[in-house]
Amino acid sequence: MPDWAIRNKYLRRFWQMMRVAQGHKFSRQHTFYDDDIFLVSYPKSGNTWTRFLVANLMNPNEDVSFTNIERLVPEIYLNYDARLLGLPRPRVFKSHDPYDPRYRRAVCIVRDPRDVAVSYFTYAKKIRKLDPDTGFDEYMERFMVGTIDAFGSWGENVGSWLGARRNTDGFFVVRYEDLLTDGITQLVRLASFLGIEATDELVTRAIEQSSIDRMRSLEKSQQSEWKMTKHSDTSVSFFRSGRSGGWKEDIPEKWADEIWSAWGDTMEELGYGRESLGAGEPG
Fold first, then answer.
1. What is the CATH number of the domain that holds 240?
2. 109 has which bridge partners?
3. Is the sign of the CA dihedral 215, 219, 225, 226 positive or negative?
4. Which of 60, 82, 130, 282 could be a cystine partner for 134, CB 3.0 to 4.6 Å?
């Protein structure tokens, strides 16, 4: 690669990181209340899906889509404080921040970091955080040390929440994998945390309206209107397979071992085994 191309590559990376950092700084200026609820997660852990589930639980008479999700469950980095202050309370927000003491009530969505790594590789190229020619090994070197964005590594981000809030009031942990395999039970638990009476009809509708097929269909028709995708690579879908355990086929053994070596203790605490999803659910 010519020297000028290398310089341009790293300049693009620098400005990408600056934009993310600015969004992170921007969110620090927001006004939050004790009854606000935050959906927190490391990127590509199922936050957008959970966002739709929650929006459908809280707004059963509204057709939730990418055209109104920023009003119903806004992402804190994409909205001005003045706008958010005008929303009805209790407000629900999406965030990828590590532990923040201002987030008094938080739903922490976690996912096997090996699946996160694979999903984030595709997503980072879609939104142009990575150059199209970035190889998986180069990406993983950055993923492991948390320099893809301003949210730290998976271990730092998730560990900060567990370390500060585990087993405290106002903190709810849910695994992406449990939402996939036992959605009704998990959504009833989540509704209880949110203070919503979870009727069978309400829960069933929320799951149907937030299905991966429906969200893919909405993305195709509305991606030019959603802030997260309108400037992205439209040839790459925001939503991949939506399954768990795909890392066994998609991630080289070297990197699976690196992830376990770095974050195995936290993974085991959440019920993730070295070879597969462990039994039980996070407490």
1. 3.40.50.300
2. 41, 174
3. positive
4. 130
Is the pLDDT reported for residue 283 higher than 50?
no
- Measured distance CA(40)–CA(147) in Å, rounded: 19
Q: Tell me, yes or no, if the pTM score tops 0.90.
A: no
Instruction: Look up residue 128 and give its DSSP letter.
Output: T
Domain that holds residue 39: 14-269
Pseudo-torsion of CA 174, 175, 179, 183, nearest 10°? -50
Number of domains in the chain: 1
Nearest to 151 by CA among 8, 52, 258, 24: 24
Question: Cα–Cα distance between 172 and 264 in angstroms, integer?
Answer: 21
- Domain membership of residue 280 (yes or no) is no
Hunting for tokens 């404080």 — which residue is that?
81
Q: CA 190, 82, 196 angle in degrees (round to 5)?
A: 20
Q: Burial-class residue 205 by CB neighbours within 10 Å (0-12, 13-18, 19+).
A: middle
